[in-house]
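Hi,

I'm pasting everything inline rather than attaching a file, because the server keeps stripping attachments. The sequence lines come first, and each chain or strand is labelled.
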Amino acid sequence: MIFKKSSKEDKVYDKIDEFLDLGRDCVVKTSETLQSYLERNDEYVDLSYSVHRIESKADDKRREIEQLLCEGAFLPLFRGDIINFLERADSILDKCESLCDYLVLYRPIFPEEMFNGLLEIFDHTLKAYSFLVEAYHKLMEDMSKVVEISLKIEREEGKIDKLEWQLQKQLFDSKNLQLAEKILIRDFITFLADISDLIEDSSDKIDVIRMTRNL
Amino acid sequence: MIAFILKFWQLLSGIFLGWGLGANDASNVFGTGVASNLIKYRNAIILTAVFVIVGALMEGEKTFDTIGKLNSTLTLNTAFIASFAAGLTVFIMTVLKLPISTSQAIVGAILGISIYYRQDVDFGKLTKIFICWVTTPLGAAIISFLLYKIIDFILSKFKYGERKIHTFVKIGVVISGCLGAYSLGANNVANVTGVFVGADMINPFWGTLIGGLSIALGVLTYSKNVMLTVGKNITTLGPLTAFIAVLGQAITVYIFTQIGVPVSTSQAIVGAVAGVGLVKGMQVINMKTIFNIVIGWVSTPVSGALVAMGLCFFIKP
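And the predicted assembly:
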């Protein structure tokens, strides 16, 4: 056999796919946790635990990928890029976990007029995450399309920034809340918007990989 | 066997030179692949050894005339001195970590002998050799520049992603490595046994066979460290561009084989790296490297000549 066995690379590709699927589950469950919380449904606690479980599974998956890379999958130059991307993508899951903990531990009381805005941020976050997965798949199969998808992520992130600004303004314009309550909600909104920032960062990592692979 | 050794002991200096050549120059062929972990060292040296021998046997004769007939009055003993002096020069300059080319060392050694014994040198061949030395890095730069443009154009016509690139680089490294090994054998075998063919000790077939085998021996026994060091330097370019540089070097050396002049594969790879760097707008070759090449055109043949003259003085063949 002239070449080193290629199965390690194939395993890495598959495991990154699985890792990204877990990421999607995590974002979806976090969204459901928030929805349930806003509906004052106690199920949100169980949902938040499921986010923890998914995050833990994703950590295991990431370790498996890193192990394969240490065992010699890919060119050394490629490995660093993959590890950087995984680290960044993993921080999305960490942020989801923290967001759920925030709800469970601090139980902020949101004014009803903010519900739609919060859920809308999550809609755009989910869209941005789906584009991230698509960007990864394009990186594997057709790199020329990566930039186009990165721009879509950027647009979703822009929409979230706008919503975040509107919600913060609405929050501090409100006369019905105490300052402490406002600060608690403000931090939650910032946390929520951070998820899309991390998705955008992960997409930037994919773009760096694309640039280094091009001639 | 003993009779054979007694008859052909002078060839040992050629084998020594071939061994050094193989140990040093295998890095230009598969250094990228091994340093990048794309191909196992063991497989790389086996492929290099095989293709060096094939290249030597198929086209090695093309450069014999240039080396063997540079001084057409070489005797068996002066051929031995020339070969031994070149081997010693390569060894000393490698120890001193100075840039080295066996092609330049053997030409210098032949010139040293010619000067010592006041023998005629074919100035037509010498001029051709010097022009080829200067044009080796320049030619490699132009070829890899064009290769880059061509491959970039072809790739732009296809959909490709990380998976295809990985496969492309893997196959490309093996193909360019085998072509590089073939060119190395075809082009440089005359450095090893050209003087013995010129002195009518052996015929060209045996010259290519013994030369090819001795280069292969160097590749198989002592090439690992240089291969990893050179390979790591080249791979900083990125895997695709490194592959183009190695391919550019192989094509350049092959072209010089058709012209009939042994050239430096190390200087060809430097030129090739500069060529791809030029397309990317990167200054990948520093002034020190260029200075080393230019100095090497003079210092290596002069060193080879001085060592040969010293050996002539002490051994009096």
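The interface with chain B takes residues 2-4, 6, 9, 13, 72, 74-78, 138-144, 209, 212-213, 215 of chain A (CB under 8 Å).

If the labels don't parse on your end, tell me and I'll reformat.
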